Structures are given as C-alpha cells and as structure tokens.
Amino acid sequence: MVQDFRSLLFAPADAPLRLTRALNSGADIVLLDLEDMVAVGNKAQARASAAAILREIRERDGAPQLFVRVNSLDSGLIDADLDAIMPGRPQGIVLPKSRSGMDVQHLAAKLAVQEAENDLRDGSTCILPLVTESGAAIFGLSTYARASHRLVALAWGVDDLAADIGAEDSRNDDGSWSDPFAMARQLTLFAAAAAGVPAIDTVFRDFGDLAGLRLEAQQARADGFAAKLAIHPGQVGTINHVFTPTGEALARAQAIVAAFSQQADAPFIRIDGQMFDRRQLARARRVLGRAARANQPPPA
Predict the structure, then answer these.
(1) What tens digit of pLDDT does each residue of 75-89 get?
(2) Same domain, 214 and 252
(3) What is the C-alpha radius of gyration for the chain, rounded to an integer number of angstroms?
C-alpha cells in the first residue's frame, strides 16, 4: 500500500551511481525512469537494472517507495517495460504522456494481467499519470475521476507540453509560470480534487537554486499540492521540509482525528468554536501521514 509522500525523485534506471544517490536521498518515492532519462539504445539495460533494484531494495528497512516510469502507451515499449519490472512488485507505475482517464484504464488492464501472471494481489500496483504533457491532455483532465481504483495522484509536467504547443519558454522574466503553464498547473490541482487524489507539483529545473525551490514548494503547498517532483537528490531535503506539517498543523490534525474517533457517525464536529466535516478529517489524516513519513529513519 502506497504511503503518504512529500517528495518524488526521478532517477535514470541505467545509471548506477545516480540510482544509489537517489535511493539514499531521503526521498519518499524514488521514480526509476525507463523513459525520457534513458537513451533508446539503453532501454534493455535500464529495464534489467530497474528489475534488480526492485528485487534487492524494495523490502529493505527504511527504503523509499519504488515507482517505475515506463514508456508511454503509444511508444511500443511499455509491454516490454512491464514484463521486465512487474516480477519485482513495484509499488506504482508512472504513466507518461497520459491523455485522459482512458489511458489510466488501459494501463490498469495491463497491470491486472501482469499481477495475475506474477502472483501479485489484484490492484496492488498504483498508477501515477503525468497529465499535462500535451495540448490534447489538457482537455482530458476532467476524466480522471473514477477512472481506476489504482489512481494514487495526478502530477503535471512542463517540458513535453512546451514542445507540443511550440512555447519558447514556460516562465516569465520574474520566474513565474507563463499563462499556458499556470493554467495547466491550476487545472491539475482541480482535476486531482475531482478525482479525490493528491496533486503533485512539477520539477524545479535549477537544482542549484534551493532558495527558488523553497519558494516554489511553499507556494505549491499553500495552493493545495501535497508533494513535489525532484530531479536531483539535493532537492529532496528542501521539499521534505516544506511539505512536512508544522507543529501547529500536526496538533490540529490530531485533534480533528481524535474528535471524529469519539463521534464515529457524526457528519461534523466542533473544536474551539470551529466546525470540521469529513473532508477536513481526510485532510487531517493526510497531514498525519506526511508527519509519520517525516519521522521515519533515513535509508541505511
């Protein structure tokens, strides 16, 4: 079962040194990449490496959760990716270039077959789609609600979208997102809320600018994003710090959960003159989950 998460770090599956650094970075989820970070000629090597990591690391105490970014549904490579990695029981699959909930359903059907063939529990493999990597994908954002019980979150991306629409840049001079990308970001947040799953903010490309990363992560958290993608191990600490609940937020979450536990059938409860319903209860539980992740020991 996928636990609450704050940071998700991409690492190319064919680069042993970068994989080692990623696995020891403190990231809640390491995304073993078989797609954009891997050259076409290295795909087979990357699959074998990802399969080995899954076998060796997945059950290690303190290990991060392991997802694999496979190649896209229309690449002609995804079946070979799944054949290689599913025996290793990845906790999730990252679906790049997803266009709609139908793509999630397509992948879910493939995973059901793979789980049966590998004696895995049906539904045990989650799906995390990247949902803004083309202009067409923007129009499919409303279709992820109820697409699959495997859906664990929605994440948005920039580079493929920029290439698809012909954008010269994705940011304004002050560093803020230009209008098309700000819209994609906002719509991802709304689509995730409609689907009842967390929204994940995209990567911050300048991995040497930790102050800029902190500001962007803080804005993402304030807007409602639950986590952030990373492309360098050095970004993980900042992201984890920003998305770890403060003492005040943790205390309030504990109070909400405790109050509902005493009134299991109540539609709402009151604390210090404020009313909280079950939507706030779900949010409080997510806060406690992120706090629990923060208190876990780092990987050995």
Answers:
(1) 999 999 999 999 999
(2) no
(3) 19
